Amino acid sequence: MSAHERAGPAPTQRVPGDGRPQLLVLRALGLGDLLTVVPCLRALRRNMPGCDIVLAAPARLATVAVATGLVDRVLPTTARGRGVPSELSWQGPPPELAVDLHGNGPPSHLLLQRLRPRRLLAYRHAQTPDVLGPEWRDDEHERERWCRLLRWYGIDADPMDLSIAAPPCASPVPGAVVVHPGADAGSRRWPPERFAAVVRALRRAGEDVVVTAGAGEGALARRVAGDAGLPREAVIGGSGDVPFHELCALVAGARCVLVGDTGLAHLATALGTPSVVLFGPVAPRLWGPPPHAKHRALWCPRAGEDPLRPGDAHASLPDARLLRITVGQVVEAVLSHCP
Fold it and tell me: Is the same domain home to 255 and 301?
């Protein structure tokens, strides 16, 4: 499915309790985390076509999840940071199948076991010896990790099968370079003055540029746009998240997406849009886009550093490896990726 194939309107959530077997997937994390397991959701849908797929995830991801066409409804969750929810408000009979795509340990295992599913698919852990799954590997890319889990249980899952369809609406700024300076941790936010310098260089090269912002990121996006000489209307979002169908249309119609290691990078991958992704505390080997010419991951580790996680992905200050990426490197990467 290419980035330019058009889907119909996003499906609505199926009403629970319609008599179909329920398949519960735990992935109570963020946008990028959800898009990373699209191959798993697609494999589960293909393997158990008669089941409703229920995703346990934050309520703000309900539109995203259902819009993929792979989730029938979302069971809203609440947890601190990237923690495991303390409970799930499950109603009705036990799930036919529960799948732990959240983590590897007793908190998520026990949370699902309390619902008494007929089967539970999860990685094994010494503290939950009744879970007979495969061994966890710290050096595995997130896409491959969860596909390997399903394959261990006999469900074929392809980690490269991560495309989603673009919505039918057109981009408000077709052909623009989309710059997203935000991330949910300071360690993964490249300095705003550098983003502004890149935007100025791109405009001198004749590119149209817009700056996107999620909820709470408006001030950051306006600073980047203002310092770069962009008009205020070049900032999209900020007071709240951009509605998902609008965000998809924007990314699908972009010439290139410039972004840090955050959810919008995964959306560009899912829609087949060229991207330049800036990495710092975590190696692209673990969270980067697939090896394709249209995606470029910039990362500047040094010899002797941890090759996978040399920094704290949730720290408040920009990671040293992120700061080693220069404005010139980013400008060259973006211009070389604009078709």
Answer: yes
